[in-house]
Design a protein that fits this description.
heterotrimer; A alpha/beta (442); B mainly alpha (299); C mainly alpha (275); A: 442 residues; alpha/beta; D-Maltodextrin-Binding Protein, domain 2; 2 domains; five-stranded mixed sheet; four-stranded mixed sheet; 21 helices; 18 strands; 15% strand; B: 299 residues; mainly alpha; MetI-like fold; 16 helices; 74% helix
């Protein structure tokens, strides 16, 4: 081993790193997650062909939301980013996102976007991003397992108890099923726990008047840190994971939680799962073999609206919608190119093609009236959910609230009592926002 | 005249000045390291956030973050998880097994020594994330542990990461780290003079007695060193657990390094995360002081 | 010592059998990894391969893995070289001269060596954000800082063992300081420098947390982060791909071990170093 040679080569290597890291700056970079690949990648190809510019991609397999936040916080985000629209206020507050008013003014499809979603992405009159999609949430069930357990289909649970008893029936009929009821939980799963899990339960827990089923009382302008609804929701989690043992816990913490639960569903290891409208395609994509035709998917999985608690006056069913947006990093060297890339990705053809088959809902009229979107029987079937949906309590600080909710669900898994967990949540919230910004509902 | 920088050697006296300058880059780096520790301490007294308003305009919160370590859920659980993980996997597992193995392997009658040695070293050579991946596959329902052990023994196949996550990470870490202790003890046993052992043998000391009364006291320093090092490393070990269980289920395997990472970069509380980091520093500092005193006494 | 370690035949048999069993247990994860990497029907299950294929390795080479291998090399070689250089030039005066506060500095090095790196993660992140070093050079700098204390202590021990008479003789013959360093000191301490270089290389090759936090683009990931990210990539846990990737990723560590094996004891003798 010639030491001098190693040293010489290493010096060469070190120099070339420094050079390589400066050489890439002329290109446009973009960060997205696997689940958007089908939208983004054809757009990138078209952009490269049209402009000759190189696009540097970062594809995040796991939690894109947390990842983007750290990217932004470190000042190292890509030029073009996909972000969860609830972050808009926070990111704008920190000046992470470029204002796009001038760009959208000259971009004809902008007129086709619904005003309601436009307003989600507009802070103080500045457009901070282009909404890509929105969605609804529901309970998915495995038709094979339901048949095995002799549960009538189409399944129409009327209250929480119906859901629990169906899961118990599955457990009795098929003891091998580790997740009779897959309910997103825990901090590893991030925002999915809050949305696909906690909110879906919370929103139907109590009578809805006075924001009793929410995390924020908008009338009073305060965060709700203790309420009958929050307690009932945590109690429901306790029933599922501790009292009735209707779900194993490791899937929510695996290195690839998204892919693993979808494969578990296809393998017949999950009977009921709380998930988004996109699961109708994404679940099948998780096996890597492409998405089978509609009829085949229909024979595997069915859906039902997530029911309310059954308490008098509580909502019959619940739903919460989110959505992702695409924006330009304030620090991008070439904002014009960055927006050009967004334009190419969101060209009417590319966007319509994608949104019609993604199981997500469109945010713009031109796609909504397109033949492929109109003729999709699945999208037509979820239309009633869209009519009654709600959104998260996206006030600045929400991401922290959501993180505390996820921690609270961790605590339930650990076997703590509802009282303890509520006390913990309340204490965390007061630490963060102060006594004046929170309230208790009796 | 006594010089500020001196040497006992003739030739160095004339060049002492320039040679001393060579220390400067190193001292700068060490200075940065030290500065970072101080910086962590400083941040721990603020409510600095990762993003949002508190990222730009943090305020000083005194000891609040430290009080919250003990009054809010999370830190104490995590400390307990870390203590169990460290004691069982590093002290009982790696050190004990490593010492036993090193002692046994000294016998010339053992066959296949290179093979045995390589098998143990392999765990140590494998990068952390590869180890996490292997053990993840190992612990799954049709993985190695189920199909080769539990199945043949008549047990139903279990999802080990769901029910015995802590045991899995402990076993994985013993697998991963025993080689290090083995190498250290192997080297230190070589330094024990054979005359001493021979003499003990002549006195009729039994094998175990000989080991306990003659050899062990002679390598006491190395034993303490080893235990201390593996304790400190395991105490702040991140990648294996992160890749294997992600800290779950619940908080079952949320060791302090994961807790700190989560609070700082997932929840976004850099201030609170720094307080966790300081608590880890202080704990390790105690170990370190203990160790240094031990070394000084040895001198 | 060897004479006295004789055992009774039955005891020996038992010990040998126990060792073989443990060896099998220890090697079994590796066997799974290698079987899966070459198995055309790879899965998480523990089974004999259905056949033999190099497809998984081909897949690894086609994706971003090639770049990630180079990134790992750059980070590890960069860190090792930089660390050895800075530590080497500092260890020499520490070994030869009576510098003020020398003992204090050496004690600080011992202390820093055992501090958990996680503890300084937040300031490292904040500095990298200010200086724009959330990239490979930033990781090299961070890892150099972390590896430096041990490297200095170990190299000082090596230099302590080099007789100064050689240097004095060269000096008498009129050699300059630079000549003495390059022609006399460096060749004699080459083994020590090599050990430190390889140890730092292996540690950086293995490092996950700092690259995971400081590198924000696929193009800059080293293999550790690349493998973690590949767990769920392309919509499926592709065991064959991951196993093949792992084999490629761990190969340099094993090769380095065989190169370094004879020197390992030297390194371990240095583990308990003190001021």
């Amino acid at each position: 081993m010639k030491l001098s040679r190693i040293l010489a080569w290493s010096a060469v290597a070190a120099t070339s790193v420094l050079m390589a890291s400066t050489a890439v700056q002329a290109d446009v970079s973009i960060t997205y997650s696997e689940s958007f690949a089908d939208l983004i990648e054809p757009g990138i190809a078209a952009f490269q062909e049209a402009t000759g510019e190189n696009v540097i991609t970062t594809v995040v397999p796991g939690n894109l939301d947390q990842r983007i936040s750290v990217d932004f916080a470190g000042g190292a985000a890509s030029d073009v980013v996909l972000f969860d629209s609830y972050r808009t206020a926070e990111y704008s507050e920190s000046n992470f996102l470029a204002a796009l008013n001038d760009q959208v003014a000259n971009w004809s499809p902008w007129a086709d976007y619904y005003d309601s979603v436009k307003s989600m992405l507009t802070v103080g009159g500045e457009v901070r991003g282009i909404p890509i999609d929105t969605d609804v949430r529901m309970l998915w069930y495995s038709k094979a397992l339901f048949e095995k357990a002799g549960i009538a289909m189409p399944w129409q649970p009327k209250n929480w108890n119906d859901v629990l008893s169906a899961a118990k029936q599955i457990k009795a009929a098929a003891p091998d099923v580790q997740y009779p009821f897959y309910l997103p939980v825990g901090s590893k799963f991030g925002e999915a726990t809050t949305m696909q899990g906690f909110y879906m339960v919370l929103l139907g827990a109590d009578t809805p008047e006075g924001d009793r089923n929410r995390l924020r009382n908008w009338g009073e302008g305060k965060w709700i840190v203790d309420s009958p609804a929050i307690r009932a929701t945590l109690g429901f989690y306790q029933d599922v994971f501790i009292n009735e043992n209707l779900s194993a816990r490791d899937l929510y913490y695996s290195p690839d939680p998204w892919g693993d639960f979808r494969r578990a569903f296809l393998d017949g290891n999950i009977a009921i799962m709380s998930g988004g409208s996109w699961e109708f395609t994404e679940t099948f994509a998780a096996n890597g073999g492409g998405v089978p035709p509609l009829a085949q998917r229909k024979s595997v999985m069915g859906w039902a609206p997530f029911p309310g608690s059954g308490k008098e006056g509580a909502p019959v069913s619940t739903n919460v919608s989110g959505g992702w947006a695409i924006g330009v990093n304030e620090k991008a060297d070439d904002k014009a190119s960055a927006f050009k890339l967004i334009e190419t990705i969101l060209s009417p053809e590319n966007y319509t093609r994608w949104v019609s088959q993604s199981g997500k809902l469109t945010t713009r009229r031109d796609a909504a009236v397109s033949a492929s979107y109109q003729q999709d029987s699945y999208l037509a079937s979820i239309a009633p959910l869209v009519a009654t949906t709600t959104s998260r309590d996206t006030y600045p600080g929400y991401s922290m609230v959501s993180a505390f909710i996820q921690q609270a669900s961790d605590s339930i898994l650990e076997g703590r009592s509802v009282d303890e967990v509520v006390a913990e949540y309340k204490a965390n919230m007061i630490d963060e926002f102060g006594e004046d910004a929170v309230m208790v509902i009796k | 005249m006594k010089r500020l920088i001196s040497s006992n050697h003739m030739w160095l006296r004339n060049v002492a000045g320039p040679v001393t300058l060579l220390v400067v880059p190193c001292l700068i780096f060490i200075g940065i390291y030290f500065l970072y520790a101080v910086w962590t301490a400083y941040v721990s007294f603020t409510d600095l956030g990762l993003i949002g308003r508190k990222a730009i305009d943090p305020s000083f919160v005194g000891f609040k973050n430290y009080i919250r370590l003990f009054t809010r859920t999370g830190f104490l659980d995590s400390l307990w998880v870390t203590t169990q993980f460290t004691l069982i996997s590093a002290v009982l597992g790696q050190s004990f097994l490593g010492l036993t193995l090193a002692a046994v392997m000294k016998s010339p009658q053992i066959r296949l020594k290179p093979v045995i040695e390589f098998a143990f070293l392999f765990g140590w050579l494998v990068p952390d994330i590869v180890a996490a991946f292997m053990w993840n596959a190992f612990a799954n329902r049709d993985g190695f542990l189920n199909s080769l052990f539990l199945g043949p023994l008549g047990f139903d196949s279990v999802n080990l990461l769901n029910q015995y996550a802590m045991t899995v990470i402990i076993v994985a870490n013993i697998w991963k780290g025993t080689a290090w202790s083995y190498l250290l003890f192997s080297a230190s046993l070589d330094s024990v003079s054979s005359e001493m052992i021979e003499a003990a043998y002549m006195d009729g000391a039994k094998r175990f007695q000989r080991f306990w009364y003659v050899i062990l006291p002679m390598i006491k320093a190395q034993i303490v060193t080893n235990i201390l090092f593996v304790t400190i490393w395991t105490f702040s070990y991140f990648p294996l657990v992160w890749g294997l269980t992600g800290g779950g289920p619940g908080r079952e395997t949320e060791v302090l390094s994961i807790f700190m990472y989560r609070q700082a970069f997932d929840v976004g509380r850099l201030g609170y995360g720094s307080a966790v980091a300081m608590a880890m520093l202080i704990t390790v500092g105690f170990f370190a002081i203990f160790y240094m005193r031990f070394l000084k006494e040895k001198k | 010592m060897q004479m006295s370690m004789r055992r009774s035949p039955s005891g020996l048999f038992f010990t040998q059998a126990a060792l073989i069993v443990m060896t099998l247990l220890w090697i079994s994860p590796a066997s799974w990894l290698f079987m899966t990497a070459f198995d055309p029907a790879a899965s998480g299950a523990f089974k004999l391969p259905d056949g033999f294929t190099l497809d998984h390795f081909a897949a690894v080479l086609q994706r971003k893995s090639g770049v990630q291998f180079i990134n790992s090399m750059l980070i590890s070689a960069g860190t090792a070289t930089f660390t050895v250089f800075v530590a080497g030039i500092a260890a020499y005066p520490f070994s030869r001269l009576n510098i003020p506060f020398k003992n204090g500095i050496l004690w600080v090095l011992v202390l820093l060596r055992i501090l958990p790196p996680v503890a300084i993660m937040i300031p490292v992140f904040l500095t990298a954000r200010i200086t724009g070093l959330l990239n490979i050079p930033g990781v090299v700098l961070a890892l150099t800082i972390l590896n430096l204390p041990f490297a200095v202590l170990l190299l000082k021990n090596f230099f302590d063992a080099v007789p100064i008479e050689l240097e004095e003789a060269a000096y008498m013959e009129g050699a300059t300081l630079f000549q003495i360093i390059t022609k006399v000191i460096a060749p004699v301490s080459r083994a020590g420098i090599a050990v430190v270089w390889f140890m730092t290389f292996t540690a950086s090759w293995n490092e996950f947390l700092f690259p995971y936090l400081l590198l924000r683009t696929d193009a800059s990931f080293p293999m550790s982060v690349g493998l973690y990210s590949a767990f769920g990539a392309n919509n499926a846990t592709n065991y064959g791909f991951l196993a093949a990737y792992s084999v490629i990723y761990l190969a340099p560590a094993v090769i380095v071990y065989f190169l370094l094996r004879r020197n390992l004891t030297t390194g371990f003798a240095g583990v308990g170093v003190k001021g």
